[in-house]
Amino acid sequence: MGTSGVENWALFSIGLDLTAAIAVVSLAIWLWPRRDRFGSAGGVIVAALLLTAGWSLAVAASTASRPDFTPSLAESMRNLGWLFVIYRLFASDGRHASLAPIRPVILALAFVELLHLSVTFALSTAVLAPDVPRAVFDFNVMFRLLVTVGGLVLTHNLYAGASRETRPGLRWPTSGLAFLWAFDLNLYTIAYLAGTWPVEIAAFRGLATLLLAGSFALAASKSRDELRFRPSRAVTFQTFSLLVIGVYLVAMVAVAQWLSYAGGDFARLIELAFLTLASAVALVVLPSRRVRGWLKVTLAKHFFQHRYDYREEWLRFTRTIGSGGMEAKPLGERAVQSIADVTDSPAGLLLTPGDQGELTLASRWNWSEIEVPAEAFPLRSLEVFQRTGFITDLDDIRAGSGTSGPELDVPQWLLDDGRAWALVPLVHYERLVGMVVLARPQIARKFDWEDFDLLRVVGQQVASYLAEHASQEALAESSRFEDFHRRMAFVMHDIKNLASQFSLLARNAELHADKKEFRDDMLVTLRNSSEKLNALIARLSRYGTGGVERLEKVGTAEVVGTVIERFRGNPQVVVAEMQQLAVTANRHSLEQVLVHLVQNGLDASRPENPVFLSVVADGLNARFEVLDSGCGMSSEFVRNGLFKPFVSTKSGGFGIGAFEARELVQAMRGRLDVESREGLGSRFIVRLPLAAATDLYENIANKDQRVA
């Protein structure tokens, strides 16, 4: 470096050191009447600040070309002053007595400083050979490094070993000392490696002193607890990401420089090839979801007291679950997403109670490939979830280590799918309204108490949304029934008008039957009335009252024969399997249900695709199956539309056929299930109790009544 460059850095150093000296002296004067805020260390801190100001003045008064003994003496006095401050801060909460190594360490560092001063003074007055100054320089730097490292270790132990109550008062003083000695550590390390004094870096020592003064000013202020640095998680993540990228680039340049020196004749080629490969790896690896997930988990674990930013989580939850509009996702998908976002899960399922209380698939979110059975969660396994709201880690169940929670009976299909990760029950007023199955995130981790607490609260909120939605649907359905009743009143009015016309026509026929004009007019009236009546009957013939008058023993062969006779001449209807069974049912209602299901299969299928009807024994029940290979239905429609009254995909339909079919089957003590996939077809399954089973139940019930 030229002479002008050294002089410029010297002027910059003098200006910064003078500024630091003024700031430190001002702080000492201001702090003296307020020294009791630091307890017994207050007076020592003021003295250390004055020693630091003296050191800054000594450094400013010296020159880089003619270093003398005065700055070295001032720096040693500064270090001794701050070592004594650390001891007094240890003593403020009694740790100087409980931590025995503290006093020997401080005494050892003080001895090193005094030894360094003695040797430096002796060498400064002696006449040395030309090759000795380098050894003297290395000796001075090594002694400074020993004191600096020791000071940093003491500062770390001072804060890390403090109790929760005393830490707020030590946060800013330890930060200031860390600024001062961390800068010196880097300065002396560079000086030792370079073998010469780094004038450019040493010029900024005044900046470290200003940071020290600012930290102690904050520590003495009344609002010090309000000045705690609390970066948002987004800022921390982005800053850490930039830091990682910067370290990666520095390492890449360092390796490239080493290759340029060690590569020989092909150095340039090797260097360029390495830079190309390293850049390609960075472009592929750094933006990946797995790396981002690892960074988030690492930062949340080591940089924050709490894993979650609860304000941000709550805002995101409300935005997701409360989004509306034409393009908004259905409530079921939004419910799954709102819970999955908490754990960064990429997909999930929503299971809600079916007709018999078991859980069935209600919605999917980004998880179309998983196969979910019609009975996703049996009723017998739900009592423990409803009672405890236990959030289940499926990996613990698979490993057989879920001993800390209640006894759980998880369906095998969830355990077989390795992507299924966790179960979150949705409990509303001690009633299980659903369950969310979360898919495994990119970076899977063990759940802790924060995960359980947040998932439990979010699950309760989602449960309230689902319960409210169900209540609104029930009110809407009741309103639609009222509308239907009003429409039926108009239908009855039309039927009454037709009946009145027929009655009037019959009376007039008694008087005018012999007149040709009357007969012609009568034929026209009969034809018009008949067409109106037939059209009305055609719309109403497939829908009954939804009730069952009487249950009796019914043969399945006779019922199926009647249904097939109804579709005579249609080759699409095929009886796949027929077992002669006797069931307890109402024959008319059972025929009506099967006719409706077969007709639905025909409506959904192409003319060349058959619709199969079969009857087999299934335990204590008879199982009627209607299978088609038509257009199929989505799980969302099966759940929310198929059995809802007045929801029809057919022109002119009342939309109560499937609803009434299920009501009739339930009235016959049976059950109607549906399995359907879009583009593949549908399977309707009607289970009715066998007559023998019904007799057995009745005999047991009668016996119990006689015993009672």
UniProtKB/TrEMBL annotation:
One of its GO terms (cellular component) is plasma membrane. It comes from the Bacteria. One of its GO terms (molecular function) is phosphorelay sensor kinase activity. The chain crosses the membrane at residues 12-32, 44-64, 76-93, 105-129, 141-160, 172-195, 201-220, 240-260, 266-286. Its EC number is 2.7.13.3. Pfam families: GAF, HATPase_c. Residues 490-692 form the Histidine kinase domain. Keywords: Kinase, Membrane, Transferase, Transmembrane, Transmembrane helix. It catalyses: ATP + protein L-histidine = ADP + protein N-phospho-L-histidine. InterPro entries: GAF, GAF-like_dom_sf, HATPase_C_sf, HATPase_dom, His_kinase_dom, Histidine_kinase_KdpD, Sig_transdc_His_kin-like_C, XrtA/PrsK. NCBIfam families: PEP_his_kin. This is histidine kinase. It comes from Novosphingobium endophyticum.
